[in-house]
Amino acid sequence: MRLGVAALGLWLFAAMSLPAQYCYQFSGTGTTGSANAGSNFVAKVNIADPPPSAPLNPGIGYIGSFGGGNNTISVTAGQATKVFNQFGVTISYFTGEDTFLSIVGADLTADAVTIQLSGLGNLLPNGPPPTLPPISSWGESATFQYVSGSSVFQGTIQFVGSCGATPPPNAPSITSGGIVPVYSTGAAVESGEWVSIYGTNLASTTATWTGNFPPTLGGTSVTIDGKPAYLWFVSPTQINMQIPDDPATGTVAVVVTTAGGSATATVTLAQFAPAFSLIDAHHVAGIITRSDGSGAHGGGTYDILGPTGTSLGYPTVAAKAGDNIVLFGVGFGPTNPHVPAGQPFSGSAPTTNPVTVLFNNVSVQPSYSGETSSGLYQLNLTVPPGLGSGDVPLQAMVGGIRTQSGVVIPLDASASTPQLKSLSLASYAASASSVTATLTLSSPAPSGGAVVFLSSNSAAVSLPNSVLIAAGSTTATFTVTTGTVATSQIVILTGTYGGVSVQAGFTVTPATAASPFIELIVIPTFQPAGYPSISTATFVVTPDPGNATFTACIDGCDLGTVLINGTTGNQGQTFTFNALQSTQGVILFAGSSTGLLQISSAALTFTLSQTTSSGNIVLGNVTGTLTVTGTPYGAAGNPVTLSGPISGTYSENRP
Asked: What does the angle CA 399 – CA 402 – CA 404 come to, to the nearest 5 degrees?
């Protein structure tokens, strides 16, 4: 059998494979070599900085556990020597003997220890294990010399405690200044804010929550101002957590507790502690929304804000003037409604204090600032022109407190050529009328505006030759005037800008004459505001000669109120009256001793909705409004105005 330095390492590592045993872990640093089978292998070990004394109970036996055959290990410490010749041999040591102390880690002072090997094996206690010092008590590694014949090799050994057992955990430690807003920096934090704690031994493992806001995660818990925090992520060097709701402000204690002990630090708790989240050391975390579906993420709905390209390992895009962006952060203060810490939330909770965003000290007001999930804020805004290019300094301010310095937003000042996106207007218009049309660009118009040229396929309409969409705007409106047509005509309008054209069509209809009815009878219920409803009135409408105007009588033309010069629209379905034939008419009025109101002015508008017809009779429903002003009939009193909706039925007698 050929053995060398590696063989000694195998033996020492093999001693770690069984539970409740005590050994040294070998790590060689010298040259490799080999020796003949059966020869003695000698390692001289000097403990340069031994651990504290770990006395053993006398009389405890140890078993030499070997792979079989005539394997031996002899250990010499000082003048004492013990030899293990075979598997299962039990030997004892007595008070004052150093033989096994070199194996189990007792205080050897500066004794020179020689180990002679002729086989591989493990040493196990057959009684209660001794008390060993913790690993951290060793200030230095021991050194050894491995001798085989005339060859000498150098190496180190290091105490590892109980082989196969987990070493006791080390106590946690919080880095000075290591409590900051999550994905960010800052000296203060606020109630409900997500923060990170940096340090060592903060957890024995890495663990992530399941969205359940646990107070303990991976064996780690944290309190702030004596209140349990909600943990999102723990690892040996970092904790991400949400601060519990706490009305306190000022310096508060932060305590991290693990199986290894506790660590305490302090942090400033403030009403406002705004901080932008970052995607690297300086760039703000945010997105650019894309209503046209051109984004690289979210199914085309957004781009990630960042330097244009893939320098961060994924596609990012710098913002341009006119882009709608969403910036993310924490600590922007109270919201309405309040979002409790430690509970899931999805929705909108605007900040109660206004937030201002500063691009290179140019102020921009967000269209929205508030929480959209528990502890996470977003700021929605449109990038204005003229802010520069490249990494531009960015801050936000709320409650007089600014976000951290050193944050930048990447901007692209290159011109973004807008495209003509749409032309929209009503689907029809009557002769001798007008309709409003709207032009829309894909992005804000450049400096000087965008001139859109207009044209039509029909002489039945008139429109301007061009429309200016103002700089920075995306829309403009213009008026289309229709001429008189005998038959319906379809008109196509065209808008052109930057070589791109858009179209929209609508129908011009002939002017509609008044409905050729003989008599229109409306039976409504009138509900004047503040008064009982009046349901006995009947309106009788008749066309004037030429069917251009109409007369409406309320409760009979001889005794009732008569409205004259009524007009019609909506293709003969809507009627409007604003003039009285005389001021002698009356209507029912419960506020008068006579039950009547003498009318001095009136206005009536109603719209017909046909439901059925039979022969020359048309039936349907009617809705509208009626306003009358007058004085109580036959009695002194102040003028009274009745105004409110009417609704009921109508019948139309056609020739």
From this structure: 145
Tell me what the mean pLDDT of segment 441-458 comes to.
87
Task: Please give the C-alpha separations between residue 588 and each of 337, 582, 606, in angstroms, as whole numbers.
Answer: 51, 17, 20
Task: Indicate the pTM of the whole model.
Answer: 0.48
* 11 membership: H or E segment, kind and range: helix 5-14
What integer is the mean pLDDT of 159-172? 54
Q: How confident is the model at residue 592 (pLDDT cuts 50, 70, 90)?
A: low
Question: Does an H or E element contain 154, and which?
Answer: strand 151-163
CB 505 within 8 A of CB 493: yes
In angstroms, what CA-CA distances link 397 with 254, 355, 359, 587, 606?
27, 6, 12, 64, 54
Q: 10 and 146, same structural domain? A: yes
CA distance 606 to 573: 8
Which residues are within 8 A (CB) of 267 and not within 5 positions of it... i.e. 6 or more apart?
A: 179, 188, 189, 195, 224, 251, 252, 254
pLDDT band at 358, cuts 50/70/90?
very high
Beta-carbon count within 10 A of 177 CB? 11
- The sign of the CA dihedral 287, 292, 295, 298 is positive
| 66 part of a folded domain | yes
| Measured distance CA(328)–CA(352) in Å, rounded | 17
Quote the pLDDT of residue 542.
86
Domain encompassing residue 214: 173-270
Return the pLDDT at 446. 80
Question: Which residue, of 132, 163, 194, is where some domain finishes?
Answer: 163
AA identity, residue 208: T
Whether 583 has a pLDDT exceeding 90, the answer reads no
254 and 340 share a domain?
Answer: no
